[in-house]
Structures are given as structure tokens and as C-alpha cells.
């Protein structure tokens, strides 16, 4: 987790809540991978042995495990994750609003009204999204657990095929997660700054539209709104292009690794690989490894995007505290 986001969580006294949520949700993907891999292997073996009568019993058995697993995940999500997310939003907005109310007029005027509104709303949402929104920090932890444990099982099943899978993944992952997306936080932060300018020019239209028309200022105001809108669009498009190239690299890596695994595994049946059912099981765990890598990569992309909002929130929290807030913390 980024140290700035971690600092915000510590500031809100919610480290324990997030730790419990991560521990409870982290094993889901791996347990689902184990069920899928073993179920497919069992079905193939029964089909090869023509044990049609056992297929239904095996299917029902695995179905019960799947229902229990997804029921557990839904229970954790509905009872803990949602409440933690709502609590984080509430505490962060309250903390920011308290900071704003305790500042002097001079301190408030150091930032525009649009900038304050953006930090209180959009940046707060992005900070929360960094942690709990789909394909962000929480899902990166779940995917990492799945990646590590699936890798261990694949090593046990076949070291050579594991080595091939890793050798294909590493260069593509580095290219996608390090080289391509490194500019995304910069583009997103600039887009947020442009959005603050946009809000600054929208406010006069809403509150003083008649005055603007009396002094023939519509053209000037609309021109400023247009410039801010175009700047937001340009920055976001650049970030989207980086994300698209990252996804393309991940697809190439996934398909190439899968083809190599099948070609090598097919030639090893009877020696390094027991039969086709075991090869299928190996490809399932390799698929989970690849899914974990791609999920982590997507999470990194989104986390870098949302980090721009977290940085802007953190700028407010780490600023020199107003005297009233300092006295409040001292209990005076």
C-alpha cells in the first residue's frame, strides 16, 4: 500500500478494520482456483473411463463447495467490506470538513472554491476507491495470494512447465506494469487539477448568471469552461491509452504462454506429465497465475489512477494544522 494512503488510514484510526477485511477476503480466488482445477481434472478422468454415473454425483459435490465458497465471500463482502468502505468515506469527509471549518479565512483563500470542492468530493472518492473499489488494492492482495499459492502448487506438479510460465510472464509484466503505466498518475493528477478549474468557472454561471449576461461575459466564461473541459479530456485520454497498451501486452503474454504450455506439456505426457487430465489441471493453475498477474497489473493501473486523488487529500491532511485544530488535539 502507498505510504500516503496508509497514513490516511492511520489518521482515521481504521488500520485494524482494513486488516481484518483483507484477511477474510484474501483466500477466495485461490480456493475457487483449487475447486475449478480439481473439478475439471475429475470430469476428464471420469469421461475417459466412461463413468457417466459418477459424473452427476461429482458435479453435485463440487456445486455444494462452490455455493459455500461464494456464500462465504458474499457474507464477508456484505457484512464487513461495505461497512468498512462507508465508514472510511464518512470519517475522511468529516476529517476534511473539520479541517476546512477550523481554518482561517486567509488559509481557506489559499485554494480556490473549486479546488476545495474537488478535494472534498472527487478526491475523497478516489482515495476510497484505491482501497476497496474493484481492481484496486484489495483485489491486488487477493490476486497476489492466488498467484503465490497457485505457483507453489504448479511447482509441485511440474517444475519445468512452471519455469516456462514464469519466463513468459516476467518480461511482459515488467513492460506492462513498470514501463507503460508509469505516466498514469501524472495524467490523472493533472486531470483533477483541471477539474478544479472547471468547477471554479461553473460556479459563477450558477450563482451569478444574470450578472454575467449584463456585463456580456458569457463568451469569456464559456471559453474558460471549454478550455478546462478540453484539458480534462486530453489528460484522461493519455491515461486511457497507457491502460489500453498495458492490456494489449497482457493479452499477448497470456496467449503465448498458454500455447507454449500446451505444446511442451503434450510432448511430456507419459513422462513428466501423467496424462491429459493432469495437463489440463496444470494449465488451470497456470491460468490462475496469469489471471493473478493480469489482475495485479490492472490493480496497479487503477491504484496509480486513484493515487492522484489520495495525494491531493493527503496534501490537506499534512498541511500545517490551524491553531484551533492543534489546540483541539491537545485537549485544550
Class by alpha and beta content = mainly alpha
Number of helices: 13
Q: Percentage of helical residues?
A: over 70%
| Biggest sheet features | none
Distance between the termini: 35 Å
What's the rounded overall pLDDT mean? 81
> How many individual β-strands?
0
Gyration radius from CA atoms, angstroms: 26 Å
Would you list the SSEs in sequence order as H and E?
HHHHHHHHHHHHH
Question: In terms of topology, how is this protein built?
Answer:
Layout: H1 3-11, H2 15-25, H3 28-48, H4 52-101, H5 105-108, H6 113-132, H7 137-157, H8 159-180, H9 184-207, H10 209-214, H11 218-268, H12 276-318, H13 323-329
Helix pairs in contact: 1-12, 2-4, 3-4, 3-7, 3-12, 4-6, 6-9, 6-12, 7-8, 7-12, 8-11, 8-12, 9-11, 9-12, 11-12
How would you characterize the overall build of this protein?
The structure is a single chain. It is built from 13 helices and no strands. The chain is 87% helix and 0% strand. The relative contact order is 0.15. The chain is elongated and about 85 Å long. Residues 320-332 have low confidence and may be disordered. It is mainly α. The protein has helices spanning 3-11, 15-25, 28-48, 52-101, 105-108, 113-132, 137-157, 159-180, 184-207, 209-214, 218-268, 276-318, 323-329.
Amino acid at each position: 500500500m502507498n505510504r500516503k494512503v496508509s497514513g490516511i488510514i492511520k489518521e482515521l484510526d481504521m488500520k485494524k478494520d482494513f486488516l481484518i477485511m483483507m484477511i477474510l477476503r484474501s483466500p477466495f480466488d485461490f480456493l475457487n482456483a483449487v475447486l475449478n482445477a480439481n473439478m475439471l481434472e475429475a470430469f476428464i478422468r471420469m469421461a475417459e473411463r466412461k463413468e457417466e454415473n459418477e459424473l452427476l454425483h461429482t458435479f453435485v459435490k463440487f456445486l455444494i463447495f462452490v455455493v459455500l465458497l461464494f456464500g462465504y465471500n458474499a457474507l464477508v463482502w456484505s457484512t464487513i467490506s461495505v461497512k468498512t468502505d462507508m465508514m472510511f468515506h464518512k470519517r475522511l469527509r468529516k476529517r476534511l470538513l473539520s479541517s476546512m471549518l477550523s481554518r482561517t479565512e486567509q488559509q481557506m483563500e489559499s485554494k480556490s472554491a473549486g479546488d476545495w470542492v474537488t478535494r472534498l468530493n472527487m478526491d475523497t472518492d478516489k482515495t476510497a476507491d484505491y482501497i476497496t473499489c474493484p481492481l484496486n488494492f484489495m483485489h491486488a492482495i487477493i490476486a497476489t495470494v492466488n498467484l503465490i499459492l497457485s505457483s507453489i502448487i504448479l511447482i509441485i506438479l511440474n517444475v519445468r512447465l512452471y519455469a516456462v510460465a514464469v519466463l513468459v510472464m516476467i518480461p511482459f509484466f515488467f513492460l506492462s506494469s513498470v514501463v507503460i503505466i508509469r505516466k498514469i498518475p501524472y495524467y490523472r493528477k493533472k486531470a483533477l487539477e483541471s477539474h478544479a478549474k472547471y468547477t471554479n468557472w461553473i460556479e459563477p454561471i450558477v450563482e451569478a448568471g444574470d450578472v454575467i449576461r449584463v456585463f456580456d461575459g458569457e463568451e469569456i466564461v464559456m471559453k474558460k469552461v471549454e478550455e478546462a473541459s478540453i484539458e480534462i479530456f486530453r489528460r484522461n485520454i493519455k491515461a486511457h491509452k497507457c491502460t489500453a497498451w498495458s492490456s494489449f501486452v497482457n493479452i499477448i503474454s497470456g496467449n503465448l504462454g498458454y500455447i507454449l504450455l500446451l505444446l511442451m506439456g503434450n510432448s511430456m505426457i507419459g513422462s513428466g506429465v501423467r496424462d491429459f487430465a493432469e495437463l489440463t489441471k496444470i494449465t488451470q493453475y497456470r491460468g490462475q497465475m496469469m489471471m493473478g498477474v493480469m489482475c495485479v497489473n490492472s490493480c496497479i493501473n487503477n491504484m496509480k489512477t486513484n493515487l492522484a486523488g489520495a495525494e491531493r487529500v493527503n496534501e490537506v491532511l499534512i498541511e500545517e494544522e490551524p491553531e484551533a485544530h492543534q489546540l483541539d488535539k491537545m485537549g485544550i
